[in-house]
Design brief:
2 domains; six-stranded parallel β-sheet; globular
Length: 303
């Protein structure tokens, strides 16, 4: 479903840009044609700039991370301007199934990985991860969370099916990786299936564990569940045993343009790691994040 929606968006933007450019070209104004087409195709960059402006204002003194400077935010914005179209205009709409799950008949890998995307995303987000994991011989499954704008409590059954596929192959607890809302979906799965013993490690990337300021503008069910100090998040936290957070590594950042202020991306009792100068989607492709997952695939014993 999401892939079709994003395909429609891409084609609509391209067609609109072409029509507007043609309008000016016919009138002998190639400069205006280039400017108008560029404004349409790069309009998302202005939208991202608005998010960063809100982040700059909302930053809190004494937060879990130091305040980001204007220069750091500008650099993070530039990184996101490059990363976002690769994800939302190519991988997700057109390449969501380009990288299949990797479940070989036999494997020598110690354990496998379940990849859980975030809000308004699909499994195509993880294509670079899946290529690397396959190269290293790591079994993995990347889910599609649907309905796209549904209740987060409807996602655990999807995660459960993915975890069961990895378990059937490796017979060992899994590593789960969640970007953004995906981290909350994993926590909801742990609650619904009481699955602590089946987890080796959970790594979350820019997940709004304590909600996010930006979600006040969200009107979907899952968008409202990511608001700060909302009843769903409070109940999720209340239902979790004290020991569960020790299974988590939570990457958060002071330049995250979606999950802010920075402290909301932390989980009390977890290993909370700050990624400086990196925006929300770009955060998922930082070497430090993959290295942490690789470390748990091969190293530390389960706590």
């Amino acid at each position: 479903m999401l892939a079709r929606l994003q395909q429609t968006l891409v084609f609509t933007l391209a067609a609109t840009a072409a029509l507007v450019a043609t309008f000016f070209l016919i009138r002998g104004r190639p400069g205006w044609a280039a400017i108008a087409a560029g404004a349409i195709l790069l309009g998302y960059a202005l939208f991202l700039a608005l998010e960063f402006a809100m982040l700059y204002v909302v930053q809190e003194e004494g937060d879990a991370a130091p305040r980001a400077s204007a220069l750091q935010l500008m650099r993070a914005w530039a990184g996101e301007v490059v990363t976002a179209p690769r994800v939302f205009f190519w991988r997700q709409p057109f390449c969501a199934d380009a990288e299949p799950d990797h479940l070989p008949y036999q494997t020598t890998a110690a354990r496998g990985v379940v990849l859980v995307h975030g809000f308004v995303c699909n499994r195509g987000l993880w294509n670079p991860w899946m290529r690397e994991l396959r190269t290293r011989g790591v079994p993995h499954v990347a889910v599609n969370l649907e309905p796209v704008f549904g209740d987060i409590d409807r996602y655990p059954r999807i995660i459960e099916a993915a975890v069961a596929r990895i378990e059937a192959l490796t017979r060992r607890p899994v590593v789960l990786v969640g970007h953004s809302m995906g981290g909350l979906a994993i926590r909801a799965w742990l609650r619904q299936f009481d699955a602590d013993a089946r987890v080796h490690r959970v790594v979350t990337i820019g997940s709004p564990h304590q909600g996010t300021w930006l979600a006040r503008f969200g009107q979907t069910i899952n968008g409202r569940q990511m608001r700060q100090r909302n009843a769903w998040l409070a109940q999720l936290a209340a239902d979790e045993p004290a020991s569960r957070a020790s299974r988590f590594t939570c990457f958060h950042g002071h330049c995250d343009n979606i999950v802010f202020p920075a402290g909301v991306g932390t989980l009390p009792g977890a290993s909370n790691v700050h990624l400086p100068g990196v925006a929300h989607v770009h955060m998922a492709f930082q070497p430090a994040v993959f290295d942490e997952v690789w470390r748990w695939l091969n190293g530390p014993a389960k706590r």
